[in-house]
Fold this sequence. Notes:
The chain is an alpha/beta fold. It has 2 domains: 4-219, no CATH class; 292-421, Rossmann fold, CATH 3.40.50.410. 33% of the residues lie in helices and 19% in strands. The protein has helices at 4-18, 20-26, 55-60, 63-78, 90-105, 147-157, 196-201, 217-232, 241-249, 257-268, 311-325, 350-353, 367-375, and strands spanning 30-33, 40-45, 48-53, 165-168, 174-175, 188-191, 271-281, 285-296, 299-304, 330-335, 346-347, 380-385, 401-406, 418-421. A 6-stranded mixed beta sheet has the order 11-10-9-12-13-14, sandwiched between helices. A 3-stranded mixed beta sheet has the order 1-3-2. Strands 5-4-6 form a 3-stranded antiparallel beta sheet. A hairpin with a 3-residue loop joins strand 7 and strand 8 (285-296). Helix 1 crosses helix 2, helix 5 (90-105) crosses helix 6 and helix 10 runs parallel beside helix 11. The longest helix has 16 residues, at 63-78. The radius of gyration is 26 Å and the shape is elongated. The N and C termini lie far apart (63 Å). The model has no long low-confidence stretch (mean pLDDT 84). The structure holds zinc ion (ZN). The site of zinc ion has 4 residues, from helix 4.
Amino acid sequence: MVSIDQLFEEVRNLLSVNCPMVFHLLVRIFTQATKQVDTAAMSVHNGRIELLYNEEFLAKLTKAERSFVLVHEVMHLMLHHCTLRTSHDRARHYIENVAMDLAINTLIREDDYIKLPRAKEDSEFAKKDEITALVPEQFGFPPMLSYEQYLDLLEQKFPPKKIAFVFKDKDGNIIGGADGDPEDADIVVEIDPNCDLGKITYGKISPKHGEQYSEDPFVDDFIRNEIENITRNKLWGNTPGDVVENILKAQIQPLDWGDILHLELGHFISFDKIPSRRRWNKHFGKPFLGVTTKSVEPVGVYVDTSGSVGNADLSRFIVEIERIAHYTTVLMWSFDTQIYDPEEAIVFSRRDISSIEFKGRGGTCFKPIFEHAKKHEIHKVVVLTDGYADEIPASDVEGMEVIWAITPGGNLEGKAGTVIEMKR
Ligand SMILES: [Zn+2]
């Protein structure tokens, strides 16, 4: 007989190889067996993240199903669901939780090691082998949408007024259904399996789903940071590109342009990792070799001095550049129709900023930037400009990562790379 701890460990080891990004987060949070939850749940409380799990529930699952459950819970964290502000209205709150699960489960691809949980026997609500988790197909919704998109679709299809609930005591007896909050903590409020939404969702989502979540900016920051680390350390493994894209999108929701620029620049701070014989890998342990940081690639910043980039735009932009200058070499040039002092590598410092002259002559040309970057083997390029000049197709920036910081009201079109519009 294998103990539940061993089973848990097995799954974690499996994930370290098969799903390194999930493992990366899983080893950074607390785990606790508890009867408080009937399945598994991520708990966020005062900056502490804890995975709560019910041993009996996990023991009934196959190993591949347990992997699914762990991936599912970690994804709630990665997509910031555990820290979302949710509604106090019971029906709306329920729909929000359904939308979260749809947004997650559509991202998890089944393979030999990860399988959606299935009913082990026939029951009133699920036939044997029927999937007991929520997936978009059950609703006739398209796959790969975001939480917000599923929420919209659910609200259209299931008006909150038509969603019904039943109240049960701790022995599972139905007690008079009522509105308002039940005083007794033992009372479980479940979706009514006879209402339209309940017909699809009953038994596929815990009535307590999302109960342990709370708004927490510290945890939000922690997650963003860890996602950056996953990207930097190339821990996405075999995660499909569109899945990675959805996870990255969930990181930039409520941010202003400065935050977006900051986040994008974060990807620029690349450390070349080389195997080290001096220590074991800090994520995977023995027998994987650790890595040491070898070198840091410089970032080339090109500031358009021709016209509408003003000092106010520049100073906000500089704050962000300064932040990455702590970690990596930032080289800076000014340009309009040409690069000024192209052979002089000016290492970024606040003092040098004041030497940038805004000539205001008009006339801008982007092509020289990328020729200059190519010649000097700069692969990470940031351009601050109003965006009005020649188009730059992807072929011009091959092998480079490019961020365009476009001043308010500027031209966002025709630019290969990431385009960020600055707003006032
Ligand atoms: Zn869930």
